[in-house]
Design brief:
alpha/beta; Rossmann fold; five-stranded parallel β-sheet; 5 strands; globular; binds manganese (II) ion
Length: about 160
């Protein structure tokens, strides 16, 4: 579970992002007015910030710079989401301090994947998922999760042994 702050002025996108993040076990918090984003971020202390770029008042690019200049928030990874990208936009957004850049309309898979990559505990998760990578053995050491769901072996004591 990670706390993820979403800065987005479009209600449908907020709903989509919040639903997606909640489905992945995260705790999303949305801000529609980017003028409040810094204050909300300081209170919420997110593990990741997802920000739209085309925002009224304070643009996403400006917000990224503000977050990176803030002592408390400068280490928080930032994922930028943008619908219109001109040549050089991605470079500018990354130069401002965003670690990732996803274009709209978002691909659900790409969105979830990028979120996972930016969260600090992703290395642990990767290790758990691939325990046999070094040996190439077909998952010899991994416990059989499948059997535990089926419950204990039926102990039919009265059945004849042939
Ligand atoms: Mn927008």
């Amino acid at each position: 579970m990670a706390k993820i702050l979403i800065v987005e002025d479009n209600a449908l996108n907020i709903k989509l992002f919040c639903d997606l993040l909640a489905a992945h076990g995260h705790q999303p918090e949305a801000v529609t007015d980017s003028r409040n984003a810094l204050d909300v971020a300081k209170q919420f202390e997110p593990d990741l910030v997802i920000t739209d770029i085309q925002l009224p008042h304070v643009s996403g690019l400006e917000l990224i710079k503000l977050l990176k200049a803030d002592e408390q928030l400068s280490a928080v990874p930032i994922m930028a989401v943008t619908a219109y990208s001109a040549i050089g936009d991605e470079e500018r957004i990354r130069a401002a301090g965003a670690q990732a850049y996803v274009s709209k309309p978002i691909s659900v898979v790409k969105f979830a994947q990028t979120v996972d990559e930016l969260l600090p505990d992703r290395h642990e998760a990767a290790l758990i998922e691939r325990p046999d990578d070094k040996t190439g053995a077909p998952h010899e050491g991994t416990p059989e999760i499948r059997d535990s769901e089926a419950g204990p072996e039926p102990q039919d004591q009265g059945s004849p042994t042939i």
